[in-house]
Amino acid sequence: MRETKRGFILPYVILVCVVVLAFFALLLASAQNLASGMQSIDNKNGTFDAAEAGLNAALEALNISQYAKGVVRGSLANGYDYEYTIYTNFLGLSPKTISDPITGKGLLVVPAQSALVVSIGSDPRGGRPSTVEALVAAHSVVVDYWKYAIIAGRNIQGSYQNGIIDVGKRQNAFVHANGSIDAAVSGTIQGVATASGDTNTLAPRRIGTAQQSLPTVGQFDMLVSDYEDEVMLYPGPADVYQGGGTKLAATYTCPPPQPSDGCLLFYDGTLDLADSPVKFIGPWTFVVNGDFTEGAPAEITFADAPGLIVANGNASIEGSGLTNAYVEVKGSTLYGGSGTFTGAIITLGNFTFDSGNSSGAFQFDSNVVPPSKTIMGRVKVVSYAEY
To answer: Exposed (0-12), middle (13-18) or buried (19+): which is 167, by Cβ within 10 Å?
Structure first.
């Protein structure tokens, strides 16, 4: 009788099943490893993005105020957190040495007018954090204000039915144009009129003189931006913000204790002041973020301290008076009216006497000319590392 082999195939079946199961186990393990790796990458990206967000927040804080310092925490919409620390030396005149905030060992040098920012991004599930470290700095420009009664970045023109006097009686009511002067002044100019261009109709008719260094348009924009940042960061009675189209108050009083650089009124838009007087009590800077017009019967008075008016556009000064003010104009200036002007004017564009309406006296007062001012630009990253 022939022997049967029915049990011969069974070991092969079992072997094949074992191989197949092992193959699928390897696939499953590989998939799990891949998923774990992807999760790790996602977590790393998440913490890195959070650390970057912290660095960006620190830069924004420094752009608002370079007094910003210390530790700040924040969160992103996906649940990741950041914590940044600013080690500032923006106000320093020499390098500053600090302990290495990453290793805790050794020393780091933060240059003058710079800051070190360390930002840590954290995983809400407790994963490994990411750290970014950046040395940041801002380009600063020192602007010097010349003691001129009138100084124009371009030309001086028109006719004036009065004189330009020096209230200090020192014959220092200087007039200068970086372009030419083609103007007529019926009264006395108690100072010298000079022009860098080839025309000068005012005594002693000097032409071809050196151009005076004035703020550039870009620097003017930086200056106005600094003022706007200040009122946004420190709103209150000493830093007043008014939207465009709103009416100015009759009186603004700088409250005690008065800031070292005075109080600030920032008017965010074009201003046409033609109906009522405005008085500033205490030291004030009045910024108009647009064209500025003062027409009769309006009058601006800085009652007990020299004031600064900054017009981020063109200016028309033809009201019933402007007292004790240094006026800075980004564009061109039209000057006239029947009221007395006491102070000084700098305009980056043309200065034009209103030939048909300029009978009011111009009284130069050197006491209103402000000291040199440092204008800080946007804070930028100088060097960068991530861990």
So the answer is: middle
Tell me the pTM: 0.72
Residue partners of 123: CB distance under 8 A and separation at least 6: 43, 46, 47, 80, 129
DSSP 90: T
Report the pLDDT value the prediction gives residue 362, as an integer from 0 to 100.
97
Which position has the token pair 């409250």?
Answer: 255
The more confidently predicted of residues 184 and 376 is 184
> Residue range 228-237: average pLDDT?
88
**Helix then strand then coil, % of the chain, to nearest 5:** 20, 40, 40
Nearest to 335 by CA among 320, 310, 357: 357
- Which carries the bigger pLDDT value, residue 135 or residue 12? 135
C-beta of residue 129 within 8 angstroms of C-beta of residue 121: yes
167: tokens are: 């209230």
* pLDDT for res 25: 60
Sign of CA dihedral 20, 26, 30, 35: positive
The span from the CA of 209 to the CA of 193, in Å, is: 10
